[in-house]
Amino acid sequence: MEDIQAVAEDIIAQLGLTPSVKSLFIEKTDSPWQEKALIKRKKEYLDVKIIIWDDDTFLYGRVYRLFLYVQDVLNPAFQYDPKITPDEDKEPGVRDCYNQIWSLYVDSRMERLNIENFYDRILRRNLFIDMAKEFSWGDADKIFQGLWEKETYTYPEIVDYAAHLNRFSDQPGAASVEVDINRCIKEPYVKNHLERISSKTLQDTTNELLSFTAYNCKDTQIESSHYGISFLYQRRVFIEIIPSRENNLFITILDPETNRYETHAYNEDSDIATIQKTIREGYEKVLLYGKQP
Questions:
Q1: How many Cβ atoms are within 10 Å of 274's Cβ, its own excluded?
Q2: Which of 248, 244, 243, 233 is CA-nearest to residue 282?
Q3: 83: closest CA among 156, 176, 137?
Q4: Domain residue spans of the chain
């Protein structure tokens, strides 16, 4: 196992931080995801504590990248100002984005320095796309590439970008499967499923079908999930209604006789009476087979 203290002191000297870092504290952790640098200002110098994964894998690069944060804080051109840092409790999404942008600024410099890094471009890209859930994967990737290629940042820029990331999007708010799914996972409410339907006619039809099913299918339980609206009888799903942005309504009904589900696609031109009849017949079959010993 390499001596983390020796590695850290060597990097401090290389980056010209020796006059500014008076005390160095090292805390070991069992995961690379928990690594961070903590800085305490004391007049003309800093006390620095690094939390570092207790493993040799990319150790030099993992320690080096932590001191790039310290170097940024000490660099007057970076304009570090903790008073403008996004509040984690009031703006958790902006704070997460701010963390990602500062981190990719650090790791893009690691790439330019040809220093082996646990957080390489591919991993950093995947973490960024996972964070930027309001954008399609393609759009988030384009934003990431633009941020990664930018050679210098100031602290106010990072904070501003985090608060207004949609400025960098070619199609802010554009519909996509992944954005739709992420929204439904975050807010799995019936109202949100209905809002996915752009056609007012189909939205009204869906509302009417939900009311019809709730009224006519007694002793059923309604549940809303990230993908659709389910009706359960005796704790088993027998009808599933999934609206889509393409103005289609997918209704899946259980056939208890064969124990299989059958799905039909409907649109705003579909006859609502026919759909209601199909739902009613499916429910009656469930009732019949539910009573059998």
A1: 11
A2: 233
A3: 156
A4: 1-74, 76-174, 196-291
- Give pLDDT tens digits along the chain (293 positions): 568 999 999 999 999 999 999 999 999 999 999 999 999 988 788 999 999 999 999 999 999 999 999 999 999 999 999 999 999 999 999 999 999 999 999 999 999 999 999 999 999 999 998 888 878 788 889 899 999 999 999 999 999 999 998 887 765 555 454 455 455 445 445 566 676 777 888 888 888 888 888 888 888 888 877 667 888 888 888 888 888 767 788 888 888 888 888 888 888 888 889 889 988 888 888 888 765 44
CATH number for region 196-291:
3.90.1150
Phi/psi region, residue 16 (left: phi>0; alpha: psi -120 to 50; beta: rest), is: left
DSSP per position, the chain:
---HHHHHHHHHHHTT-TTTEEEEEEEEES-GGG-EEEEEEETTEEEEEEEEESS-TTHHHHHHHHHHHHHHHH-GGG---GGGSPPTTT-HHHHHHHHHHHHHHHHHHHHHTT---SS-HHHHHHHHHHH-TTS-HHHHHHHHHHHHH-----HHHHHHHHHTGGGG-SSTT---HHHHHHHHHH---HHHHHHT---HHHHHHHHHHHHHHHHHSTTEEEEE-SS-EEEEETTEEEEEEEE-TTS-EEEEEEETTTTEEEEEEE-TTS-HHHHHHHHHHHHHHHHHHHH--
Distance CA 13, CA 15 (A): 5
In degrees, to the nearest 5, what angle opens at C-alpha 167 toward C-alphas 162 and 168? 90
Rounded Cα distance between 81 and 83, Å, is: 5
| Beta-carbon count within 10 A of 220 CB | 17
